[in-house]
């Protein structure tokens, strides 16, 4: 929407500036009409060129948007697959670590029980 507004602003500004400069130039009515007709063709060609370029820009943006969307979608799928592979590859290590943690916890509990002898300062 901003590009469209900018294009319209440039076109209208150019037309107003061109008309203002032609009308303020010291020349006869006949010369002025001749200049206006000459410039009219130039402006038509310029406007057609601008319109064509705007359409090309719009198509390019649409294509880029679609390609970006497809790339992001593919990247997302690849990332999900990589995460699943990582989870599968680390599952055995996770299980082993859980067993070791449980063993360490049990050992700590056993040590606490053996240290907690009757007559010790902690049991009072």
Automatic annotation (TrEMBL):
<protein>
    <submittedName>
        <fullName>YtxH domain-containing protein</fullName>
    </submittedName>
</protein>
<dbReference type="Pfam" id="PF12732">
    <property type="entry name" value="YtxH"/>
</dbReference>
<keyword id="KW-0175">Coiled coil</keyword>
<keyword id="KW-1133">Transmembrane helix</keyword>
<keyword id="KW-0812">Transmembrane</keyword>
<feature type="transmembrane region" description="Helical">
    <location>
        <begin position="6"/>
        <end position="25"/>
    </location>
</feature>
<feature type="coiled-coil region">
    <location>
        <begin position="33"/>
        <end position="67"/>
    </location>
</feature>
<dbReference type="InterPro" id="IPR024623">
    <property type="entry name" value="YtxH"/>
</dbReference>
<keyword id="KW-0472">Membrane</keyword>
<dbReference type="InterPro" id="IPR052928">
    <property type="entry name" value="Desiccation-related_membrane"/>
</dbReference>
């Amino acid at each position: 929407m901003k590009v469209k507004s900018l294009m319209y602003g440039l076109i209208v500004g150019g037309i107003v500036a061109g008309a203002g400069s032609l009308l303020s130039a010291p020349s006869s009515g006949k010369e002025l009409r001749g200049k206006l007709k000459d410039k009219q063709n130039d402006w038509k060609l310029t406007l057609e060129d601008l319109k064509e370029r705007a359409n090309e820009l719009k198509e390019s943006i649409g294509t880029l948007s679609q390609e970006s969307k497809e790339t992001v979608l593919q990247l997302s799928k690849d990332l999900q697959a990589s995460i699943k592979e990582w989870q599968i590859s680390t599952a055995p290590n996770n299980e082993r670590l859980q067993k070791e943690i449980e063993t360490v916890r049990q050992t700590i509990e056993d040590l606490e029980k053996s240290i907690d002898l009757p007559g010790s300062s902690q049991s009072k």
